[in-house]
Amino acid sequence: MPDITLKAKDVELKLDGFYLKIDKLSVKTGERVCLYGPNGSGKTTLCKILTGFIKPEKGSIKLFGRSLSELNSKERAGLINYTCFDTSVAYVDKILIDFVKLGAYVRRSANGIESEVIDVLKLLGLESKKEQVVSTLSAGELQRAIIAQSLIQRSKIMIFDEPTAHLDIYWQHRLINDINQYAKDFLKTGIFVLHDLNLAINNFDRLICMNEGKVQADLELDSPEKKFKAIEIIGNLYSIKIDVTQHKRKVIGVYF
Amino acid sequence: MNLSTGRLKQIFNSIVFQASIAILCLVLSTIFGYGYVVDPSDPVLRIRLFRGLVAFSAGASLATAGVVFQSVFRNPMAEPYLLGSSSGASFAVAVLTIVSSYLSFSTISFYPAAALFGAAAASFVTLSIARTNGRTPVLKLLLTGIAVSFFLGAMTPVILAFSGKDLYTVFFFMNGTTQGAGLFEALSLLTFSALLCSIIAFNSRSIDYLLLGEERSYHIGFEIEKAKMFLLLIASFLTGLSVAFAGIIGFVGLLIPNLTKSNLSKGAFHWVSTSFFAGGTFLVIADFSARNLFFPREVPLNSITAILGAPYLIYLVRKNA
Question: Taking the CB of residue B236, how many other CB atoms lie within 10 A of it?
């Protein structure tokens, strides 16, 4: 397995009043990356370019050494998926267990999917709701259901766009930890778009800060010193003053 | 399809049940009604049966096509005439009446062919205009369909103004009728609609992914664009067939999928099969009413479906509010 799972080069995209340019971006196998930046900085657009849903005007994207454009739908979806919160998926109105199973479309064999779905639902605290119709779930529950659907897909690279947006504080932390654990168990690479500073600083190998369609900073987060440095850069990015403290192994930024 | 035996049995049972009701309604609508039937060899009986069969097939086709349209557009207001098939069919029939005024023979027997052609052509035009860069965004499709429908709808009376002949038949045709149904019409429509609706039912997985949403399905790896075009083509053909043999009948394709949507949680197959039988049965009843309510006068089917359907739709809306 090559060390680099995902590589983007000279990607350019112009939309009305928005210009995105990524000179170079690469993600290693098993790495967990957090994409961070202000609203409208191009995080979601970048994610969708990486999955091929949005076609850039220029540039190349390679997954495991293969160009994104030469992959067919199934191959692509086996390598990379993208998950964001979208209430309209509940329009399918299936019972939860069938809803989650829809994510297994690219899996070669359906053997054992049933029990795997139950495991994923347990992981995300939805086991008691498995027979419930998805349109009756709460926003936070639906969000976890969509994440469950993505986990069952077992793509090698998983992108989660604001996976904690509708979750309570318990689930915000639990979800990031659980997905990270799941990713570790199945040797997956994870890219997360997050806005919570402390979640972003303490749970990932790397932090990529974006601003105005460009990568502003690309930082490793493997030591408290580097986390301090990351918080300083984020403070500058938003022009806010962030006080930093250290609690056990976690680095915590506080801002008012 | 990945179904457990329990669910398979459930589906089978419900199909048997629904088919029985449909057949019962068909038989009753054949036996009863005005028309002086004394002995079983009376041709009136046969005509009633053929008309009932055409009504059933047309209703089943429209309802199943309605399921496809509501899934593609992810909207309970979507219906089978959205791509312009009904106005395309009327337009073609109107053109035919003009042609017939220059010919010495009647063109009534060519109405079905013209309607099918008109419906297919209008749908095809809408689909091709809306398609850009290999994708067919639903909103573009919707707006193009509206434009095509209105244009052809506006052209039809203009053309009819030059005709002067056959207007009663044309009027009836445009408002839905099973008049003129014979053995050929009944059997061919029933065969085609059963066949095409089965294709839709066995592609119920595509319906699941359409309902889930195009972007989500893309990321799951399902080829949504292909599935969408395939289902829309079959649904348009079904609509065209129903228009060809039974004229333009509103409300069935809109009402029935909403009525049966509660079956969706059991799977899209269930939604399709229930809509097929419910749509067919509904139109058998409507056709029976159209023939007998004001006997010896007959009213267009479209009026009956709307008079029966509109209040029910209002009830559904109020109930779910």
Answer: 27
Complex ipTM, two decimals? 0.93
Burial of B207 (0-12, 13-18, 19+ CB in 10 A): buried
Q: Quick check: A201 and A230 in contact, CB under 8 A?
A: yes
Is residue B272 within 8 A of residue B200, CB to CB? The reply is: yes
**pLDDT above 90: percentage of residues in chain B:** 49
B78-126 pLDDT, tens digit each: 999 999 988 998 898 888 888 877 776 666 677 788 888 998 899 999 9
> Residue B95 and residue A152: Cα distance in Å, rounded?
55
Chain A residues bordering chain B (beta-carbon distance below 8 Å): 51, 53, 73-74, 76-78, 81-83, 86, 88-89, 91-95, 98, 101-103, 105-106, 110, 133, 149-150, 153
State the maximum Cα–Cα separation within chain B, in Å, rounded to a whole number. Answer: 64
B184 touches chain A (CB under 8 A): no
- Cβ–Cβ gap B221/A76 under 8 Å: yes
Contact A73 B222 (CB under 8 A): yes
pLDDT digits (tens, 9 = 90+) for B309-318: 888 888 878 8
Give A24: exposed, middle or buried? Use CB within 10 Å, 0-12, 13-18, 19+.
exposed
Please name the residue ranges forming H helices in A8-158.
Answer: 43-50, 73-79, 96-101, 113-123, 139-153
Q: Is B212 touching A (CB cutoff 8 A)? A: yes
- Cβ-based contacts of A110 with chain B (< 8 Å): 2
A59: which DSSP letter? E
- The domain spanning residue B53 has which CATH number? 1.10.3470.10
Predicted pLDDT of residue A158: 94
- pLDDT tens figures, A178-191: 888 888 788 789 99
Domain count for chain B, please give it.
1
Distance CA A43, CA A36 (A): 7
Give the domain extent around B223: 5-320
pLDDT at A1: 47
